[in-house]
Design a protein that fits this description.
heterodimer, A: about 575 residues, alpha/beta, Rossmann fold, 3 domains, 6-stranded parallel sheet, 25 helices, B: about 180 residues, alpha+beta, Alpha-Beta Plaits, 2 domains, 5-stranded antiparallel sheet
């Protein structure tokens, strides 16, 4: 069967069971948009290519399937760089198709030409410029395989316009042909048997173990396996920002999020542990704080699909390369064998548990209740959103203070319900990511918590949401500042506020949201919080934006200041004052 | 300078466009320093071989190897400590050699087992292939005559072969 390159491209995407493409057409990709009209694949027309990328990420976060983006060459491709890098940092499976100028024009500085594979080389797991039309199906198949296996990540396929218009004989590579075409790519998913036994022995010998669960648990869809290991070994768990939902927050062994703005108990339990069972996580600086002060007494069992993560930051005592799902199940089996055979018994966990509950009682998450006439407390808004959220609600967030409050105050009891930009910290992530999440899980309520700074970066995608009838809900915590930067300037730059004020009224968020086809509400009074959220939850025929005017002086606590060790975590000033009283 | 701290990585890669950029980009992005780099085709046209020399005091060779291996086009990596490698490099140099000095230069080249590849009015171009340390020695000895231009290829390397015949097995599976 002879097809055009464009037809072969779309057919290849269909072969990979693509349900939806987020994209925006233009010159060089034009030929691919014609066969799209006859395809079963849904296309969502975005207003900016960055939005397409984040939507695809949001879709991938909640479905576990690769998000697919298609845009044209030049500026469209460069607009995609941010979401591609975001996906790379957070190991999100993403396939990006970009148009390119015709082969003969490559290198001539043609209109809308840019070196897309060159620019994206360091932020993709792999990329490929397709010079041979016959290779198109193979390259697409490779892209999906690479994006979704091993450590997932973004893969970009750059297709010159004349490759799309040339004739190709259709073929679809077999599994064998696919593997033969990637001789250097054989991710190791099964852990080393001896190391797994070693891990089991280390775990049963530990008196103060902590499971340090990372986003890899979600990528490997290993939440059940994690719960089985945790329950068998009665090990407390911390879930990193990327792993929220990987283990239920309402489980008594869940200590919450560790790291720079993690809760006191999670941070301190890691510091005091004699064993960290690090699963699908990479010892990010936001988790470890100053490295030489991080978990000084802990042995490390480190499981990761990416061998380069083992020993990159902290040398593990027991390194295991493998897929988290498989390896955790194997470790659990090995632990059970040790316990059942009587070869080992678990140390008494009560002393460790009681130290932990001591920290929990002393330093729970805290904010001062508002005084009469105060602006809204952002934490109070988060609690109200959480408590009113329908079962199974998916939460997306941008980057900054609101993101930390979202992670701290939400109760994540189900995996794949948290959509967030962790590694790259991309402001403007939440609106498009929430839209992508809603496309992936239309059966779920999707809330995005956003800051006023973030919202202004990508709000135009609400036009996409309105026109495509994707009813997401956006809560803007409008404190009229770039809040996290303001917090740092307050704490570390003697309150010298430099370029962080944004104004509460400019833009008028309600008018703006309405102009984009959304329902819009503004909340200034604490008594209005609940009715507004109830109203927003009741609207299901279009996007809703609720603007909450929040207290700009609120800061995120606890906090491990940059460059400090986790032992020097700063708790909320009220708690610090109380504990001084206790000491006196 | 070549020291025991210089390890050689031989990296077998798919012979595709952009692979050199991927490898070079990875070194730049991760802050790894390359001492020397040689790229050449192999006996199998689908693959090329990179010979990369790195200073292991500056970067952990394990991280370099692991990061390199994440490149989809990288097929195999061998890390060779100086004692484990047979290494050769090629040197080309134009040396000032007027009538007076010419025979001395030629003699030096002969001693090292090199050759004269070009002769001019008061210069000769010489070629020498050998172990990198030997090239260093030659370079030093010929320098007083005046080196106008000098090029070295960077080393290529193969793993040193087993010296011992395999022991007869007394235990284990008979396979």
């Amino acid at each position: 069967m002879e097809l055009t390159g464009a037809q072969a491209l779309i057919k290849s995407l269909e072969m990979e069971r693509t349900e939806v493409i987020f994209g925006l057409p233009g010159g060089c990709i034009l030929p691919a948009y014609d066969p799209l009209l006859d395809s079963s694949i849904r296309h969502i027309l975005v207003r900016h290519e960055q939005g397409a990328g984040h939507m695809a990420e949001g879709y991938a976060h909640v479905t576990g399937r690769p998000g697919v983006v298609m845009v044209t060459s030049g500026p469209a491709a460069t607009n995609l760089v941010t979401p591609i890098c975001d996906a790379y940092m957070d190991s999100v499976p993403l396939v990006a198709i970009t148009g390119q100028v015709s082969r003969a024009a490559i290198g001539t500085d043609a209109f809308q030409e840019c070196d897309t594979v060159g620019i994206t080389r360091s932020v993709t797991k792999h990329n490929e410029l397709v010079m041979d039309p016959a290779e198109l199906p193979l390259v697409v198949r490779q892209a999906f395989h690479l994006a979704t296996t091993g450590r997932p990540g973004p893969v970009l396929v750059d297709v010159p316009k004349d490759v799309l218009t040339s004739k190709v004989e259709w073929w679809w590579p077999t599994d064998d042909e696919l593997l033969a075409s990637l001789p250097g790519y054989r991710p190791n998913t099964r852990g080393h048997t001896r190391m797994i036994r070693e891990a089991a022995r280390t775990i049963v010998a530990a008196e103060r173990p902590v499971v340090y669960a990372g986003g890899g648990i979600l990528r490997a869809r290993a939440a059940e396996e994690l719960a089985a290991l945790v329950e068998l070994t009665e090990t407390p768990v911390v879930t990193t920002l990327m792993a929220r939902g990987a283990f239920p927050d309402d489980h008594p062994l869940n200590l919450g999020m560790p790291g720079m703005h993690g809760n006191y108990t999670a941070i301190t339990a890691m510091q005091e542990a004699d064993l960290l069972i690090a699963l699908g996580t990479r010892f990010d600086d936001r988790v470890t704080g100053r490295l030489d002060g991080f978990a000084p007494g802990a042995k490390i069992v480190h499981v990761d699909i990416d061998p380069a993560e083992l020993g990159k930051v902290r040398r593990p005592d027991v390194p295991i390369v493998g897929d988290a799902k498989t390896v955790i199940a194997e470790i659990t089996k090995a632990v059970r064998a040790l316990l059942d055979s009587g070869e080992a018994t678990l140390p008494e966990r009560a002393p460790w548990r009681s130290r932990i509950s001591g920290w929990q009682e002393r330093y729970p998450l805290h904010y001062d209740p508002p005084a009469e006439g105060d602006a809204l407390k952002p934490q109070r808004v988060m609690e109200a959103l959480r408590d009113s959220a329908p079962e199974g609600t998916i939460l997306a967030s941008g980057v900054g203070q609101h993101q930390m409050w979202a992670s701290q105050y939400w109760r994540f009891n189900e995996p794949y319900t948290w959509v967030n930009s962790g590694g790259l910290g991309t402001m403007g992530f939440s609106v498009p990511a929430a839209i992508g999440a809603k496309v992936g899980r239309p059966d779920r309520t999707v809330w995005a918590v956003d800051g006023d700074g973030c919202f202004q970066m990508t709000a135009q995608e609400l036009v996409t949401a309105s026109s495509e009838r994707i009813p997401v809900k956006i809560a803007i915590l409008n404190n009229a500042y770039l809040g996290m930067v303001r917090q740092w300037q307050e704490m570390f730059y003697e309150e010298r506020y430099s370029e962080v004020y944004l104004s509460p009224d400019l833009p008028d968020y309600v008018k703006w949201a309405e102009a984009m086809g959304c329902a819009a509400l503004r909340v200034e009074d604490p008594d209005e919080i609940q009715p507004a959220i109830d109203k927003a939850n009741s609207i299901d025929d279009r996007p809703v934006v609720v603007e909450f005017r929040t207290d700009a002086s609120e800061k995120v606590f606890p906090m491990v200041p940059a460059g400090a060790a986790n032992g020097d975590v700063v708790v909320h000033p009220t708690q610090a004052a109380e504990s001084r009283k206790v000491v006196q | 300078m070549r020291t025991p701290h210089h390890h050689t990585l031989t990296v077998l890669v798919e012979n595709r466009s952009g692979v050199l950029a991927r490898v070079a980009g990875l070194f730049a992005r991760r802050g790894f320093n390359i001492e020397s780099l040689a790229v050449a085709p192999t006996d199998d046209e689908r693959f090329s071989r990179f010979t990369i020399v790195v200073d292991v005091r500056e970067t952990d060779p394990e991280q370099i190897t692991k990061q390199l291996f994440k490149l989809v086009n990288v097929v195999k990596i061998t890390e060779l400590a100086p004692a484990d490698a047979v290494e050769r490099e090629l040197l080309l140099a134009t040396v000032t050699a007027d009538a007076e000095a010419r025979s001395a230069v030629i003699e030096l080249v002969d001693i090292f087992g090199g050759g004269i590849v070009d002769v001019g009015w008061n210069q000769v171009s010489v070629m020498l292939a050998g172990e990198p340390a030997r090239l260093d020695d030659f370079e030093e000895l010929v320098r007083p005559y005046g080196i106008t231009e000098l090029q070295r290829t960077g080393r290529v390397a193969l793993a040193r072969l087993e010296r011992q015949a395999p022991r007869l097995r007394t235990t284990g599976k008979a396979s």
